[in-house]
Amino acid sequence: MYCPRCKNDDTSVVDSRMSEDGRAVRRRRECPKCEYRFTTFERQDVSSLIVVKNNGIRETYSRSKLEKGVWLACSKRPVSHEKVESMLNKLEEKWRENQKEVASKTIGHDVMRALKKLDDVAYIRFASVHRQFKDVEEFKEEVGKLLT
C-alpha cells in the first residue's frame, strides 16, 4: 500500500479491526519513511454484480455511481456518512444473495425504501429522479403520502 503523503510503497499495518458489522476490515497503517498514519478498508468485491437497465442493457455495478446519487439526495440534510455507508452495505449484501444480476428498478426501489427510513427529504429528492415525476402534481402526491 502506497503512502498517500510521500508515495512510499512500503507501509506497515499498525492495527486491524472489523468494521461495518463484519463486512469490512479497517486497517491503520504507518509509513516508516515519513511516519504518516492513514486508514484503509478492505471490503468484499461486488464488481461481479451486473445491473440490468430498463432498456435491457447490462453494466457492471458501480457503488460510486449509486453513492453519488444518494449523496445528491442527502445534500444539506442531517444524514451521517456512517448511515449512508451502512445502508449501501446492507443493500449490496441483499442484491448479491444468490444473484449475479439485479434490475436497476430493484436498486432504485430498495434505495428509496432505505432513504425513507433515513430522511424524508432525501427520499423525495431521490424518488423524484428515480420515478421521473412528470409534473408538480405527482410530486405533491408523493409528499402527501409522507404527511399522512
Question: What's a quick, concise take on this entry?
Answer:
The protein is 44% helix and 21% strand. The chain contains 5 helices and 6 strands; from the N terminus they run βββββααβααα.
Describe it for me?
The protein has five helices and six strands, in the order βββββααβααα. It is α+β, with helices and mostly antiparallel strands. The chain has two domains: 1-43; 45-147, no CATH class. A three-stranded antiparallel sheet has the order 1-2-3, with no helix packed on it. It has a three-stranded mixed sheet with strand order 5-4-6. The N and C termini lie far apart (52 Å).
Strand content: 15-25%
- Quaternary state, please? single chain
Q: What's the overall average pLDDT, rounded?
A: 88
User: What string gives the helices and strands in order?
Assistant: EEEEEHHEHHH
Rg over CA atoms, rounded to whole Å, is 19 Å
Number of helices: 5
Attribute tags:
148 residues; alpha+beta; 2 domains; three-stranded antiparallel beta sheet; three-stranded mixed beta sheet; 44% helix; elongated
List the helices and strands and how they pair.
Elements: E1 12-19, E2 24-30, E3 37-43, E4 50-52, E5 58-60, H1 63-73, H2 81-96, E6 101-103, H3 104-118, H4 120-130, H5 136-147
Parallel strand pairs: 4-6
Antiparallel strand pairs: 1-2, 2-3, 4-5
Helix pairs in contact: 1-4, 2-3, 3-4
